[in-house]
User: What shape does this take?
Amino acid sequence: IHATFIPLLDEQKNVTGGVIVLTDITELRKLETVRNDFVANVSHELRTPLTSMVGYLDTLLESNIEDPATRDKFLKIIKEETDRLSVLIKDLLNLSKIESQSFDLKADNLGEVLTKVVNLLEKKAEDKNIDLKIEIAANLPLVYMVREQIKQVMINLIDNAIKYTPAGGKVSINVEAEADKVYISVKDNGIGIPLSDQERIFERFYRVDKARSRALGGTGIGLSIVRNIIKQHGSDIQVKSREGAGSEFSFYLKAAE
Ligand code: ADP
Assistant: This one.
């Protein structure tokens, strides 16, 4: 609580009373903490690949590595870390853009967006021998959305489903209409998410298993982008998951007819 005292004066400037203004700054403090945590997290995430790059570069420059295979190995690691940094920066810019821009929802065709996304990720699923299925109810109404943003949501969800499902698994996308809403779900039979992590996975940089996510090229930002976009569509994202059994992410969009 923050207190301010404002004295009330009469014509001779004598204090005759006063007003005490109490401001609850809990929310402000919270916001400040969130912002500080964010900056600390970003710095840490940026520094990790940089430290590793500097280490390998120093070794290359200072010691005379004769063996071309070792040199190539070091260069390859540096290249991987550079790629990682650029994905991270791209994700961060994307997130900040979504957080700052206002949304102009339009009645649009969801089926078209989904077909495009599935075409985009089909190869990735195929390469991992994952059965990627999409079921769209007939006569789906138009929905209120920002096409590019919903495309991003679907890419992130399906990409995760493929990433966190072992080879030979199944990913299914289901779309159905009920009353004035269209329900969308992405379900996999992959590694699942422990109950205690299920709320936290939507936080920026939160990953159940950092090493695994990192190895799969993850940054921990994908789901925070998803939640942000879905919230700006007046909805929210839900997760149902069981460790070792699989996960299902779902949300709805408002029908336009
Ligand atoms: P990342 O870049 O690490 O994939 P996300 O924000 O997309 O970041 O997801 C956060 C974390 O949630 C992941 O690191 C992973 O632990 C977990 N996760 C997301 N989707 C799934 C899924 N379909 N199955 C299992 N775990 C998942």
Summary: The two ends are 48 Å apart (CA to CA). The longest helix spans residues 26-62.
